[in-house]
Amino acid sequence: MNFSAIASGVLDMLWPRRCPLCSNESDRPGRHVCSACVDRVPFMPVTGVCSVCSTPVEGASGFFTCTECSARSTKPCFDRAVSAVRYEGDIKRLVHAYKMGAQVYLRDDFAEWMHAAASARLDMAAVDFVLSVPMTLYHRIDRGFDQTAYLAEAVAKAASRKRLRGAVARTGRPKRQSGLGESERRENVKGSFAVLRPGFVRGRTLLVVDDVMTTGSTLSECARALKEAGAAKVFALTLARTVK
Q1: CATH code of the domain in which 202 resides
Q2: How many domains does the chain have?
Q3: Does the predicted TM-score (pTM) go above 0.85?
Q4: Considering all CA atoms of the chain, what is the largest pairwise distance in Å, rounded to the nearest integer?
Q5: Cβ–Cβ < 8 Å for 213, 236
Q6: Which domain covers residue 147, as residue numbers?
Q7: Which residues are CB-contacts of 99 (< 8 A; sequence separation ≥ 6)?
Q8: Using CA atoms, how far apart are residues 174 and 189, in angstroms rounded to an integer?
Q9: CA 120, CA 58: separation in Å to the nearest integer?
Q10: Which sign, positive or negative, has the C-alpha torsion 111, 61, 181, 79?
Q11: 133-150: pLDDT as tens digits
Q12: Helix (H, G, I), strand (E, B) or coil at 119
């Protein structure tokens, strides 16, 4: 008997969930975003995207490798990155409410979308551990919680994968990535991750979770540290993706 599901159902009857986008009562058990609003979510395409970074190209079909991922100087260190939705419109508002407003109730909706995207594009059965891109202590104190760790926990549960905690840490305090160009972002995060538990990542296939992917610099640098510690493969999964 799933007592968690029963408790959730009882709470939904007593205090119906309201959709954060339209304010109507949600018709999706255990979720806040209603079906009508989910139909308008700008989900990332499954095909017609780069096989490495998942950048979509209008009118393209199948899979290809984009120019940035083909070039040695800009090739990311992760083996593949997958994002659930485009970072635009109402999605920006939802992500901001989650990250900056601590609206943690949105996590289950987000994790559902992320798990669906990962299942469509990645071999989740091959993943040994799910881990999150670590936050700086400053950002954790400023926001009051680790939003990325929350997502990683929910994705790991949805995918029936093991969650690996404390494997990677931030070193130093890089500037915020927002406002920086692509090359500046890569330089800003260079050497900013350290693997604290190399024995757990050596020879493993890892899924690294983050909230938003812009250029992929942060995820690539995290993957670099994990691979230098012996990880066999590193996949990246984000909730949202900035698309030019």
Answers
A1: 3.40.50
A2: 1
A3: yes
A4: 57
A5: yes
A6: 77-241
A7: 143, 147, 211
A8: 6
A9: 20
A10: positive
A11: 998 777 777 777 889 999
A12: helix
Q: Are 216 and 240 in contact (CB under 8 A)?
A: no
Residue 123: inside a domain = yes
DSSP conformation class of 225 = H
Is residue 81, in this structure, part of any structural domain at all?
yes
Burial class (CB in 10 A: 0-12, 13-18, 19+), 177: middle
**Token pair recorded at residue 136:** 């700086």
List the structure tokens of 32.
């806040």
- Per-residue model confidence as pLDDT tens digits over 29-85: 889 999 999 999 999 998 899 999 998 887 777 788 888 898 877 899 999 999 999
Q: Would residue 16 count as lying in a domain? A: no
Placement of tokens 């949105």 in the chain: 106
In a domain, 10, yes or no: no
* CA 27 to each of CA 7, 18, 58, 80, 233: distance values in angstroms, whole numbers, following the listed order: 17, 9, 33, 34, 39
